[in-house]
Specification:
Elements: H1 3-16, E1 29-35, E2 40-48, E3 54-62, H2 65-78, H3 83-98, H4 110-117, H5 126-143, E4 150-151
Parallel strand pairs: 1-4
Antiparallel strand pairs: 1-2, 2-3
Helix pairs in contact: 1-2, 2-5, 3-5
Bound molecules: zinc ion (ZN).
Length: 154
């Protein structure tokens, strides 16, 4: 199995059986996102405790395999991490998906980085980049508890 096949396999697996699907009990932050070009919708819920740690995180939504896999991988990677670190991971991911070759973060182990790099295949397709980044922009919006929906076209 080459790297490309491995990446596709991980995406398909997360797309079919997303992790952290549902609504976090006692969430204290949430936000919605919409990618009208593809029809992807996501609602991210999280519980940030007084130590600024993402105690729990989940999402509800529907859309293409890339958008669902990306939300699944994202929630999986930031769960249990502190807010500052989570923000660094988000910034690193968005940078990688837009232009950088590699991830620079020291906050993820190799296994976790592989999961994120799976999504790097969308780079050359601007439409798919929106699918992959939707949940991430929505998470940033949830941190700020923004009430307006994230829209990839705005
Ligand atoms: Zn999509």
């Amino acid at each position: 199995m080459n790297l490309k096949e491995l990446y596709q396999e991980i995406i398909l697996e997360h797309g079919k059986n997303p992790k952290n699907l549902g609504k976090t009990e006692n969430f204290n932050k949430d936000a919605k996102g919409n990618n009208p070009l593809c029809g992807d919708n996501v609602h991210v819920y999280l519980k940030l405790n007084d130590k600024k740690i993402i105690e729990d995180i989940s999402f509800e939504g529907s859309g293409c395999a890339i958008s669902m896999a990306s939300a699944s991988i994202m929630t999986d990677l930031v769960k249990g991490k502190n807010l500052t670190i989570a923000k660094e991971i988000i910034e690193d991911f968005l940078g990688m998906i837009k232009e950088k070759e590699e991830l620079n973060t020291k906050n993820l182990n190799d296994d976790e980085k592989t999961k994120l790099m799976c999504l790097s295949g969308v780079k050359q397709y601007p439409m798919r980049v929106k699918c992959a980044t939707l949940s991430w922009h929505t998470l940033v919006s949830a941190f700020e508890n923004k009430k307006t929906e994230v829209n990839t076209e705005n």
